[in-house]
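MODEL INPUT / OUTPUT PAIR
PAIR INDEX: 1
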Amino acid sequence: MGHREDLLEGAKRCLLEKGFLRTTARDIVRESGTNLASIGYHYGSKDALLVQAYVSLVEATGDRFDPGRAGREAMATDPGSLERFQEVWTHIVEAVGESRAIWMLSFELIIQGDRMPEVRRMLVEAEEQGRSGLLPLFNGVPEEEQGKDAVDTEGRFYQTLLQGLMVQWLFNPETATNATQLTEGLRRVIEGTKRG
């Protein structure tokens, strides 16, 4: 690997061990076997490197949401169905449990966002990519073919559910909502709107 990749891998390890605020440039250099100047050269700043490392960690976790990308058998249910909804959330819940350190890091960034405006700006830019990345899991349409309207509505809906589930699973995994409960809740909401 070159310095750029070494820095990214070192930054990921630092984030998981120390979090965003406690990771220093020297920590990253020590972990990556590079030098301080290489951070600025390749990423512009320590914060930009850490944001890229965070996004990379989240993307790797997102790959585990889809069994086909994780090297397992692809989804077994039809896109757009309640069965697919439940299957996707089952995989997401499993990944959240396996990736606790990453989700803790997410909340550190949410809570500290006002104190780090540049970091917040970079993460806000990555938010839309996260929304569009979730949609294919549910609707079966490749990410590059998702329309802006779908990303801004369905993508936001799934992202909101994901963030709520993360809070529950981080706070108390024993009582957190599971995929079956979430699907039954949606089914009842849909039935209620048909009656109204």
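PAIR INDEX: 2
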Amino acid sequence: MYSIVAVCTGNICRSPMAEFALRRAFEAAGLAEHVRVDSAGVSDEELGNPVDPRAGELMRRAGLDASRHAAQVFDPVRFADRDLVLALDVVHWRRLRALAPDEAAAAKVHLLREFDPAVAGEERSGLGIYDPWYGGPEDFETTYGMIAAAVPGVVRAVARELGTARDAAQDAGRA
């Protein structure tokens, strides 16, 4: 099973929005049984808390149920069983790469917006998704829009990888 974790600061806004949007997209693509998605934060200050009420309301309106979400902290041990680590902002990308036990683990870390074709080729410094926690509902809408724009690219990339893995397994079976 292909495993993805989305990571932000406290795991109450951006990363849960990405987690639940990705889950729904993988379900729609018929890949839910092949892909596992969860989320975490780089900080423990929100540990155990539910999603921010503003993020929760936005997700409800979008048809996503995050009512059982409880914030968790990214443990570097997770590098071993994750294929893709999606950082929501540049500071998270840096922190996660610093936590990586080796170069192979660090190579799993990508900014979520790297998968948004509208910003392909932009400098990494411009690919972060700012924290809506400090703003109002419109900031959550903007953040969710940035997340949603990248989700199809993640699904396409993972589907290609899964297809390649299946093709290799089939080829190995023919040998």
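PAIR 2 NOTE: The CA atoms of residues 12 and 51 lie 4 Å apart.
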